[in-house]
Structure formats: structure tokens, C-alpha cells
């Protein structure tokens, strides 16, 4: 930690800061600069809470060198983590995976049909929402428990592990009964009670980045889960909110290689929610894979024009077949076996 | 609702859209334009879910004229709502209120001392966090139930109603036992299960705007609470996330008069979290009141330099006294009696 | 300047950084921390270009303690600057000024009529655009030189100094012939050739904040003007671009007290462009003044519904009269004489 | 154009709007809706200026169906444009090009050495800045005319066409004398006088997207150039400004396929400025190509650690060689001949 004093801070103020640092159990080392003095804090072995310091007279700024997360960092855990979802391995060195399915589970026919279609096309996981977060209360909110049951049925029929969203701490139990991978959605990335709760189970968690979350906050949210004892976290970039409205969100693809530098956790990409436009999903899926993503989440619906949510960003079965064909070739180019079972 | 067709959409595509609209039970009225055709949807009495339409061939854009909220809108409920918190009235026409107190409840001495001080200075409500949302898991998370008890004690000793944050659906019950006004924080503005749960109680709710929530999403979040039956919602602007990092957030003060046009609910402002800097709190508090806010939330701490969270944005007792003196004069200037009990 | 080394940087890398700093003529002081070493740079008397350092092996981050501006900073020039525009004084301690007029000069009748009306209502300066920056090339671009002539005429008839925008270095001469205060618009805040050119004249300059400019960039842009020799710069907050589209821009009012801490230059506010909505202009004008702004810019048009640009945010004469009445009372409350010539 | 009336607008107000539309020479068609009336505007053949309408009593919103650009749109010009820069073809169907070189021209040795190195590695164009836009006035501003001369020399020695930035209308002439492709930088994307000036020359222009420019504004800026008669415009995405500070900007890669839908102009990507980090440049370069970009701009410097600007984002010669090898393979995979002269 570095404490920057204001340009007109006197010796007395500098001494007071030094004393406060020492009372916290650390060493303080003043560094007189051209215009102002800075004070280095030594002896800490992790993040130092700066609340006492920031407010002393003459202090201009407190700069943290350590980060608010540790367990998720590559510095702490240099080896890349591979997360196993019912036999599907996700992480560095593994062939990138594809999770596909409708935004929302709507009926047995819809979800089973989709599961079989995406399985046939080569998907690794089945995605589908049973609990749906929606901006307003007057729109379709998901089939809830019934949706979970149908999703599990479709998973069984297709042989695909299933991933679905959990929206509150008290439903972690019921969702974990059915799901193979529990998704924490963007709106809940800082629902800390929910993070702690999924940290107490053993099943893997897919944590989506919040709409306006920095990388540091994203990793600190994952830290909540690991801190409770669950190391099986997969991160997912799904677009951030910016001034641009031509796409639903702004896909921040540069975080893929960046997160791989900062953390050992796998990182997937959701081009469907990020762009909100069907025609942009295939190019951004491929861009994500080339940028190094460990997998993608793609919305697929038997009849997108009749979908109860997010129709415009869902691929048709035919569109998904075509995408998977391109993904297979791309994976082969990137050095992964073309076929899952090859 | 207006459906804009792409410039090269043919008659067949237009007819298909008309048919789909009619199947939904509405009337469709094609409006041929200079470059493309638009189709007006008539006969709806509220928000129309557009998922079937958006995806038909030839559809370029669907424009909603109705909003995803209704109960909170001034169009639906023209008269301004006054929310009563244990005798303190909040809303249009009432003297703006001041809720003051520490970011977090830390000890009995700290909270009681602060309660008596802010009461003496003229505050109307006591604020303090028992459950604290924090970016990382390794920092102080609040005293929880013990914090609620201490807060209630301080409320009793000072005679001030208390406002505190509730972070999950399952703790609504316990928080409602102690609190007079339940706060839903910015990070939980779209925690829909929590919104529904506070919608089922009778106590008033202070709903803070999410860090990257639009006004429309903010009002739609309030709609969740009203839709469950609780009409006692107070909105609170607390700064949004932008590219600017010189302040903690960007206080979006223009929403105060704007929300007063769009909704009948009261709107308060939190200049402490918005700016993150003690020196900016007094000028922005006064600016909020002049802009028409129905109240402000101000962080006050007996020893800000020792606060366990948000010290740099907390006022000292002396600073708060000075602010309240200015607020009293300003309220008098704005036409409200200077004294609460005048 | 502080150089933060990565957690696994070895002694050799630290030594190389120390050597590089010394070759630049400064002293380097390594500060070993709990997790990593930081290196303080001493002996500099201003901003240090970090390009050589940032890229050395083992360097994680370079943190600047000094700022990229100096002449505009309060640290360098503690006394507040008062800018005199033809006898109208703008700055700390002076009664806040009001610049009013149409977005664009459209005709002699329009501008003269408006000038007389805003003068009668109590405005201090006449604003009006002769050169208009417009998003697309197919809309009205201003009357250009003819507009300047008409604006000067209206200034003369009303006795008001005039402020108008200059859009390119080569038109600084012609604009300076007519204008009393030259405005550099938000889109040109980093048009450095233009900044240098207005830095070489003697007339005062009103520098608007760029749509996505940080405070640091805003002040660094002003530094360009002062560095060329023109100390007469007035800053102007006019709203920044954020995700929120309910208002035209997001008025970042907190920068008013913040800039007063960081710089000695006066700061004005333009609530018309910031909000884009007529009904929001009066409340935000008053909020700006209470927050400490040294003046406001308000769009006024004889017939806003016929304005060739920005009609929806322009006040009518009647609306402006009403606002000025409120402004006068507010100024009196704030301790300034109610009347300009009192 | 569609005019949405407020929910309580009466017949009189609707009639007034209809009349105003008709006075503008268009037809108006009222469409009574469930909650409010909308009025369609017919008969226009392009963008309609809405200033008269927006401000009439009872008007809530004016929605444009037509866009503020036309010449750049694919609707108007369905066939993709191929821009020829001294024999290098850029656009749909052509092998993606690579422009490489230092951020700033620093010396004859530096630029010639770099030119020969990037040519040997397979680059198609040489980039380098002679006029440099810098945040503050106290940092290196470029070698200016001398830089142009050196750049041209390096272009000649290496046989590569050169691309360099022009910062003001009056220097368009001198830059066009030397450059084969004139770059308009992000900060000048709405410097309309500059856009017009490069619209009057015949040489091709590389237009970078502004830091906070929407796609619509970006295309409207290009429209300025085409409207003056120069059809040779290449667009360039270089990252937008968001709340995220972990990267220098946020690379908005989704605009690549989106712009290809909206416009016939080629679109390139600058991963160096977008990310600001050397390690992110190769993955994002490849992601850009897979997303469909017509080329990339990459910063390369013989000794990045000594670069006078943007060192941390520049590749070394060795790093660039490695990237080009990967790019060649990727281009081959994407169906383009691996070798330029193959």
C-alpha cells in the first residue's frame, strides 16, 4: 500500500500517518518526492483495509498494490484450473465447450427437442432458464420448479449435462438437485448471500460478469465462492453496459486473455446476451474461441420467433448446425481434436 | 407498439406481421413511409410482449410506446404519493427529510452516540448498515442481527425511526422486525426475489438505483414491489457508474425532476455514496434539495478516520451540524418551515 | 512516481529499474512490500514521462503522483482566477453569471429579439452559435460569418457581451474579431491545434468538457491554452455520455465543487445541453448555482418549436423570465446582491 | 418518422401536429393506440429534421426510422466498397491487411528499421505518427513535417504505402503530399471541418471511431467525407471508453459484423490502442480477423521500452514476426491465400 500525501502536508501530518500505520502492525517508510511525500506500507501479507488511513489529515490518496482477491488469482495458484462438469472438462488445454439451448424452458416438447438437436449438432452442455430474471414484473418469469424438472428430463434424454440459473440463496438447494452446473446471472454477481450459498455446495458454478462490474469486482465476486470452499467456478463474460445501444450490451472480449493472466479459473463467453442479435452470434462465437475462451454459451430455440424471451438473439437449429460446423473446423485449426469423442 | 420493417421488406412479409399481430388479439395498421413501412399496433391496454414479432422476417425494429411499468407511473396515478415512516412524511409538498448515520453499525457506543448527535442536529431518520455488501469477502461484512438490535436501541434512545439495508429474501422478516424503513441496495436493485419479498410486507421500502440501471429499469424494479401489494416505496438516486473515476460514482441529479414527471413515488438522494468524498457532500446535498429531492441520506460517523467502511465520505458531527444549519436555511428559502416541529 | 514490480520480479529486474530511473536523472528508492516491491521515484519537479520504465521486465504498474497539468492547478496557483469578459466578472466571489440565447443564430430578427429579451430578464451575456457542429452533414450547419455579424449586432443593441463557438484553428481570427468570449465545444475539447490557437489570443475562452473526458483530461486540455500564454479560461460542465438515455447527457454536477478544489479557473454549467429537456433546465440551473457554479449557460429561443436546432431544450422568453426571477432570489439567498448593478 | 403523443394529448394537439407535418410537405397519419396516439409521417425520402415537431404541445417523443446518413449505408449502396491504397486492396473479399509501425516517428533510424522489419514480416502498410495528439501539452507532440518526410523515406525504402494522422484542416495539404492513407484520429472524429477537408481530396481516409461515438455517429462522420466527394473511406474500431479501466479502452469487436451489415465501407481494427497492453494484442488481432475485419493496425517498435509514446502496447520485431506467422495461417484457414503475392 502506498499513501500519497497532499502537496502541502507538513511533517506533523506525515508523522501521524506513520504512527497510524505502525499501530496497525505494519512498517511505514516515507518517500519524499519532488512535489509531495508518499509513504510506503511494508509488512502486510495481503490486502490492507485503508479506512483509518484514508481519512487522516494531509492524506491525498491511498493506492493499493495488493488486490481484494487472492484465492482466484494466478499469483496465488499458478496452475490453470480445469472444472469437470459430469465428465465435460472446461479450462486451459481442453477443447473449448459449447453450452446451447433456449433462454427459457417453455415446455417439455420445446426443451427435449432442442436438447436432442443441439446434442446432434455437437453441443457439450444443455442450457435453459427455469427461473428468469426479467426487468418488469408483467412478463414471463419462467416455469420455475417445473422448468427444472423438464430441463433434467431433456438432459437425460440427450445425455447432456445441464446448466441453469439460480436466483436466490434459498433456491440453491432445489436448483442443485437438478442442475449439473449452477449459473449465477449478471444481475446477481454482487448478490453476496447467493455467492456464499453456492460456495457451500460442491457442484460447479458458472459466474456471469455483472453489467457494470470491473474485472477486479468480477474476480472478487468469484473469491466469495472460493472463500466458502467451492473451488469449481467458471467465469463468463456476457457483455457490459456502455453508451452504445446498437448492440444489447458491449462484448468485452479483451477480458478473455486478460483474465487468463490474472486468474487460474476458466473463462467462457456468451455472445447471445452480449450482442442481442442473431446475426452477430456466429462471428463473435468464433472470435471468442480465437481469443482463447474456454467455451461459449449459445441460445438456440426451435422457433425463435415464438420464444417467450430473447427470441431475436436465438439461433435456429439450422443456424446452430452451421455454427457448430464452423466451430469444429476452428477448433481443429486451433489444435484441438475436431471431434469430442475423437 | 410500432413495428418498423426493413427497407427491402416485401408485401408478403408485411402481411405476415399483420397476421401475427392480429393473432395476438390486436389490430395492425401498416403505415407506408418514404423508405420503409412501419406497422402500428392498436388495441393494447398495456405493455405488449414483442417476442413473437421481433423475429419475423423483414422486421427491423420494434418500438414500444407503452412502458414496462404501470403502477409506479404518474400517468396511472397522477397524485404524488406521501410515504409515512413512523410519523415522518416523505414526498411532494413535505419538508425534505434527512436520514443520517454511519455506513455500518460498529458498536453500541458508536451508534447511540451518532443517533443522539444527528437527532440533536435535526435529522429525521437514523441510517446504519447491519448487513453490509462488500466487494470482497475479506473485509468487514457488518454486525448482522446484533447490528439490527443496536440500531433499534439507538433509534429508541434518540426517538428517530431507523432505515437499514436488507440483502436477501430470507432476512426480510428479521430486518422488518427492527427497521422502520427497509433499504434495498444498489447491487440488489434487480434481485427480483428480494423485490417481491419486500413487496409482501407493509413497511415502507427505500429502493436505491442500481449502478448501471436506466430510469426505466429503476421504475420497473419499483413496479415489482408495488405489484406484490406494497405501495410504500421511496426511490433513491445514489450515483451511477461511468468512465469518470475522480468521484466514486457520478451523481445523476437530473433524474430528480425527471422521476417526479414520470412517477408519483418520492425520490431521495444519497450524496455520500454518489461522490465518495466528504468535501463534496454538503454542496451536493444542497443541490439535491434545490433540484427538488424529497430528502437526502448522509453518512455521519463520530470518528470517520476510524470507520470500518466508507470513512472518507462520512461527515464528522461538527460537519453534519454545519450542513444541517445550511439545510434548515435552504428549506426555509424553499418555502418549508425551518423547524421540523415548527 | 511509484513503480510497482510484479510479485515474482527478482533482484536483477529491480536493479534494472533503479538504474533506468537514475539514468533519467532522478533518484530511485526501492520499498519492499509484503507481496511485492515498489520503487519510489524522487527528485522530479513535475510530471515524469514513464514510457521507458513501464516496459522494463518485471514492472507491473506505474503510478503517477504528479498530474499532467500544472498551470491550471490550484496547487500551483492557489488564488482563484476571476475572468473579465468586457466588464462582466466571472469566478469565485462574484455573483454567478447567466449566458443566454439561442443554440443557433438564425436571423437578425431572431437574435436581436432574443438579445433584448434576455437582457431585460437580467442575463449577463448573449450566447448564440454561428458555426454549428452537427452529427450529420445533411442538417443546418449555422450561418457562419453572417451569423457572427448578426450576433455582434445583437450584442451591441442589447449591450451584452457575446459568446460563440469556434470550430477550427483557422477561424479563430474571424471569430475573435466579433466574439467577447470564444467557446471551444465538447467535440473539440481535444482538438489540440484549436486549443493552441485560442491560447495565442488574448480574449477569454470558454472550454466545454468533452463528452467522455475525465476531469484530468479536461484540466489538461485547459493546460494547452494556458501553456500558450492565455490565462483567461473558463471551464464548463455540459454533461457526459453514459448508458442513460432518458436525458441527452448526464449532468455531472459533482465536478463543480471538485474542480474548485483542483483548479483556480472558474467553472460554469450548461444545463440545456446536459439534460436536453426544457422542463429539467430550471431545476438543474438552480442546483448548479447552489453547488457553487460561477455561472450557467441557458438556451432561450423566441419560438422553440421552430428552432433550427435544439428546440426541445430551449426556454421560451416567458420561461426564461421565470427562471431569472428564481435565480435572482437564489443569488440573494446565497449572499450575492440580487441585482447586477446593485 | 413517428411522433408519439403523450397519454393526455387532446384532439386539438393532435390536429396541430398533423398540420405542422403537412406544412413541412409530408403526410401525417394518426394511429390511435391503447394508451396514446402516435402519428406516422409519410412521404419523406430521407432524414426529416424534427425540430419543429418535437416541441409542439402534447408531443412526447419523435422516433426516426430513417438514419442521419445515406451515402455510407448499405441500403443505398449494396455492393461492398474496395478501397485501393497504392495497390493494396482493402475490403470484403480481399485478404485482410496489416498496417504496422510505431505510434510515433522518432528518428530516421527508428522508422526505416521498423519499416524494413515489418515489411519482411509481411505487413502491407507502414503506420507511424508525425503529428501526435497528447492529453497534456508537456509531453512529446511528434516530429511534425520532419516526421512526414522520414515516414515517406521509410515507405520508399521498404516499398510499403504509408498511413499517418492528420490533425487539422490546414495540414491536410501537407499530410496528403506524403501519406498514401490519411488517418483521422478518434479525438477528431467529430472535428467536422477536418472531415470536410479530407472529403475534398482524392486520397483514401482511415476514420477512427471516437472514444464515445455510437455506430450511428461514426457512420454519420464518414458521411461528411463522402458528402464532399471522397468515397475512399476505411472505418476503424479502436476501442470505446467505458467504466472498465483494466484495459486502456474497451474493444467493441461486435461492431465489425454489425458495420458490415449497415455500411458498404471496409472496417479495420486497432487492437493496440484498444487494449493498451502488448500481451492482449495478438489474441485480439486474431479475434478481429475471425470476426470479419478487413485489416488490423498494430503498433511495432524496435525498442518498445524506449518508445516516446505508447511503449507498453507496442510489439517488438520478434513479437510481430510471431503474430504475422499466426495471421498468415489464420488467413489461410479463413480462405485467403497465405501469401500476399501468392
UniProtKB/TrEMBL annotation, chains A, B, C, D:
<dbReference type="GO" id="GO:0009073">
    <property type="term" value="P:aromatic amino acid family biosynthetic process"/>
</dbReference>
<dbReference type="GO" id="GO:0016832">
    <property type="term" value="F:aldehyde-lyase activity"/>
</dbReference>
<feature type="domain" description="DAHP synthetase I/KDSA">
    <location>
        <begin position="87"/>
        <end position="329"/>
    </location>
</feature>
<dbReference type="Pfam" id="PF18152">
    <property type="entry name" value="DAHP_snth_FXD"/>
</dbReference>
<dbReference type="InterPro" id="IPR006268">
    <property type="entry name" value="DAHP_syn_2"/>
</dbReference>
<feature type="domain" description="DAHP synthase ferredoxin-like">
    <location>
        <begin position="1"/>
        <end position="67"/>
    </location>
</feature>
<dbReference type="Pfam" id="PF00793">
    <property type="entry name" value="DAHP_synth_1"/>
</dbReference>
<dbReference type="InterPro" id="IPR006218">
    <property type="entry name" value="DAHP1/KDSA"/>
</dbReference>
<dbReference type="InterPro" id="IPR041071">
    <property type="entry name" value="DAHP_snth_FXD"/>
</dbReference>
<protein>
    <submittedName>
        <fullName>3-deoxy-D-arabinoheptulosonate-7-phosphate synthase</fullName>
        <ecNumber>2.5.1.54</ecNumber>
    </submittedName>
</protein>
<dbReference type="InterPro" id="IPR052899">
    <property type="entry name" value="Class-I_DAHP_synthase"/>
</dbReference>
<keyword id="KW-0808">Transferase</keyword>
<dbReference type="GO" id="GO:0003849">
    <property type="term" value="F:3-deoxy-7-phosphoheptulonate synthase activity"/>
</dbReference>
<dbReference type="InterPro" id="IPR013785">
    <property type="entry name" value="Aldolase_TIM"/>
</dbReference>
Amino acid at each position: 500500500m502506498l499513501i500519497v500525501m497532499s502537496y502541502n502536508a507538513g511533517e506533523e501530518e506525515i508523522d501521524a500517518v506513520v504512527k497510524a500505520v505502525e499501530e496497525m502492525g505494519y512498517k511505514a517508510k516515507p518517500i519524499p518526492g519532488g512535489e509531495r511525500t508518499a509513504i510506503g506500507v511494508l509488512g502486510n501479507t495481503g490486502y490492507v483495509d485503508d479506512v483509518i488511513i484514508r481519512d487522516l489529515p494531509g492524506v491525498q490518496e491511498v493506492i493499493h498494490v495488493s488486490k481484494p482477491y487472492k484465492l482466484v488469482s494466478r499469483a496465488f495458484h499458478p496452475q490453470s484450473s480445469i472444472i469437470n462438469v459430469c465428465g465435460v472438462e472446461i479450462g486451459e488445454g481442453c477443447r473449448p465447450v459449447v453450452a446451447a439451448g433456449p433462454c427459457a424452458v417453455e415446455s417439455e416438447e420445446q426443451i427435449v427437442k432442442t436438447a436432442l438437436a443441439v446434442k446432434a449438432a455437437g453441443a457439450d452442455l444443455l442450457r435453459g432458464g427455469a427461473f428468469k430474471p426479467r426487468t418488469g414484473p408483467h412478463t414471463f418469469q419462467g416455469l420455475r420448479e417445473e422448468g427444472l424438472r423438464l430441463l433434467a428430463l431433456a438432459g437425460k434424454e440427450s445425455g447432456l449435462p445441464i446448466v441453469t440459473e439460480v436466483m436466490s440463496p434459498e433456491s440453491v438447494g432445489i436448483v442443485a438437485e437438478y442442475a449439473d452446473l449452477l449459473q449465477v446471472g449478471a444481475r446477481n454477481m454482487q448478490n453476496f448471500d447467493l455467492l456464499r450459498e453456492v460456495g457451500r455446495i460442491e457442484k460447479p458454478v458458472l459466474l456471469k460478469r455483472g453489467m457494470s462490474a470491473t474485472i477486479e469486482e468480477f474476480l472478487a465476486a468469484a473469491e466469495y465462492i472460493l472463500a466458502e470452499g467451492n473451488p469449481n467456478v467458471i467465469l463468463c463474460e456476457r457483455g457490459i453496459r456502455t453508451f452504445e445501444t446498437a448492440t444489447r450490451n458491449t462484448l468485452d472480449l479483451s477480458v478473455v486473455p486478460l483474465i487468463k493472466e490474472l486468474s487460474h479459473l476458466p473463462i467462457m463467453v456468451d455472445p447471445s446476451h452480449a450482442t442481442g442479435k442473431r446475426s452477430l452470434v456466429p462471428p463473435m462465437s468464433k472470435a471468442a474461441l480465437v481469443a482463447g475462451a474456454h467455451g461459449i454459451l449459445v441460445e438456440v430455440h426451435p422457433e425463435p420467433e415464438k420464444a417467450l424471451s430473447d427470441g431475436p438473439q436465438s439461433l435456429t437449429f439450422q443456424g446452430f448446425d452451421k455454427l457448430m460446423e464452423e466451430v469444429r473446423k476452428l477448433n481443429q485449426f486451433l489444435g484441438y481434436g475436431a471431434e469430442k469423442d475423437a
